[in-house]
Amino acid sequence: MAAKSTNSESVLFDIFLYAFMISVGIVTVYPFLNVLAISFNQAMDTVRGGIYLWPRIFTLDNYKEIFIYNNLIVAFKNSVLRTVLGTLLGVFSAAMVAYVLSRKDFIARKQISFVFVLTLYFSGGIIPVYMLIRDLHLMNTFWVYILPGLVNAWNIFVIRSYIDGLPISLQESAKIDGANDLAIFFRIILPLCKPVLATIALFIAVGQWNSWFDTFLYNSNSDDLTTLQYELMKILANTTAGASSADMARSGNPELTTRVSPESIRASITIVATLPILVVYPFLQKYFVQGLTLGAVKS
To answer: Mind telling me which residue stretches traverse the membrane in this protein (predicted)?
Structure first.
């Protein structure tokens, strides 16, 4: 009887667990599918409501309205370039600083770590940062997207925690074999830190891809330095105000005012902005999960 009772409890628990996980999956996936359906639905029909998992009147006008904007191609190239360069340089810089701070023989280790900790709690504010960027002559340059965020304290501490969990005997053995600090960093530390580096790379890439406020502050007057998120934000603002980008470019054509609505444009912009990250994430998922669990097992 006890065995049957245990089996019944196990079956009930499995049913509850599967039902719970399916519910979580539906709650997680449904909003994205709903936005996708709205982005492909006819704008005026969307205003009626009732769009859930698939479009009621299929159309590509919402995406045509976005991609007809003149600066979008240049903005897309700049966003891709800043994401790639910002991610590579950001990960490499954070890894180098983290390796130095992880060394027990580094004399100023505690003092420099304390300075980095302070940056996590205190910030100079927008105006001092703007004045600093101006004095460094980074205004209206591409490097304003890369250099200010090159070294991030949180990324450094995450990577350092991972390095601290690696066996110190690996570095000691390499030193006995005659390897210097650079050789140890490139040949031992970096290969073993792939999970945490992939995690930090994903965080930096998402931040770079989604960033638009720095473009607004520093490069809003340079059309050749605009970014995708900034241009999409302007399209959304114009559409919400009652005039789409195509309306502004072709004023006098009343037919265009019925092609889009703020809700349909907002959904289309969300898909356009999210799709590149969704494409990249599956390739980093394995390392991302390992990176999030760093420190769970220490040798």
So the answer is: 12-33, 80-101, 113-133, 145-163, 184-206, 265-284
